[in-house]
Amino acid sequence: MRSYQPDLTPPWKKSTPVPEVPAEPDLVVEEAVTGFCGAVIRCEKTAQGPTVTLEDRFGKARVFPMEPRGFLLEGRVVTLVRPSAGGPVRPARTASGSVAVPGARARVARAGRIYVEGRHDAELVERVWGDDLRIEGVVVEYLEGVDDLPSIVREFAPGPDARLGVLVDHLVPGSKESRIAAQVTDAHVLVVGHPFIDVWEAVKPSSVGIPGWPAVPRGQDWKTGVCRALGWPENTGAAWQHILSKVSSYKDLEPQLLGRVEELIDFVTLPD
User: Fold this and answer.
1) Residue 60: CB partners within 8 Å, gap ≥ 6?
2) Looking at the record, which segments are called Disordered (predicted)?
3) pLDDT of the residue at 55
4) Positive or negative, the Cα torsion across 176, 182, 184, 188?
């Protein structure tokens, strides 16, 4: 009769079972050794065993062996396995073009902020970059103009762990906005802007279904003038909602705005 042999392995040396997760396309995981975080773009069989290719939000791809306990999913250790045929397909990208993170929870808000000039600016940023901002824990606030920007920056008291990014409309040489922005010299503040008179112009005319944004005579309210020139009712709030409804992704925006918002997000999320 076989005698019983007790397991004398200390508890801290015992391997705890971890869940097996199918490496489905666009699943976002972190490789446990290197810390590389990205979305699954493919799995392959090799002579050394199965591998998975991950792509990060900047488009950089790396190949890793699918070893047991080799990855983290939402902070938990998991083992990636090859997905079965016909598995569910997750959305690949957010509206900003970043890799989507299905089921990701919003991060606790950072001390840093992004300030934009007005409500329309904030609504447009939310529509395109909202998913990214929640994952990064970045809050966007609007200022109702930039005339008091230097004093607003002083009151915010930016620092290494509380960076401030500011997006300014019509930031072109010689403009009032450029003179105000030049007064902000704090190393923990980044002021960038686009050349458009108003953020409406940052939406591509083709997306709105118009041949172009009309020229409005100086001295006339620009938004009201746009409505008149296009034959829209002179209700700028309703006009903006119509414009915003035509924006579904970064492809509907002009590059001059896209680059500036991405720059601000990178700035306020830099490591302390």
Assistant:
1) 38
2) 1-21
3) 85
4) positive
Q: Strand ranges (DSSP E) for the chain?
A: 20-22, 28-31, 37-46, 49-55, 61-65, 71-73, 76-81, 113-116, 139-142, 164-168, 189-193
Distance CA 21, CA 165 (A): 38
Residue written as token pair 């990064």: 136
d(Cα 40, Cα 259) in Å, to the nearest integer? 26
Q: How far apart are CA 94 and CA 88, in angstroms?
A: 18
Instruction: In whole angstroms, give the CA distance from residue 173 to residue 14.
Output: 66
Of 60, 112, 74, nearest in space to 266 by CA: 112
Cα dihedral value 38, 43, 44, 48, nearest 10? 60
Average pLDDT, consecutive stretches of 10 residues, N- to C-terminus, the chain (272 residues): 53 67 88 88 84 83 90 88 65 62 61 91 93 87 88 92 92 91 93 94 95 93 96 95 93 92 91 64
Tell me the backbone φ, ψ of residue 154, rounded to 5 degrees.
-60, -40
Q: How many CA atoms lie within 13 A of 158 on its CB side?
A: 23
**The pLDDT of residue 27:** 86
- pLDDT of res. 25: 86
Q: What is the pLDDT of residue 89?
A: 47
Name the token pair of 90.
Answer: 């997750």
Does the predicted TM-score (pTM) go above 0.85?
A: no
CA distances from 193 to 8, 46, 140 (A): 66, 49, 15
- The CB density around residue 132, as the number of other CB atoms within 10 Å, is 23
- The arrangement of strands across the sheet holding 20-22 comes to 20-22, 76-81, 71-73, 28-31, 37-46, 49-55, 61-65
In this predicted structure, what is the pLDDT of residue 134?
86
Q: What angle do CA 105, 121, 241 make, to 5 degrees?
A: 95
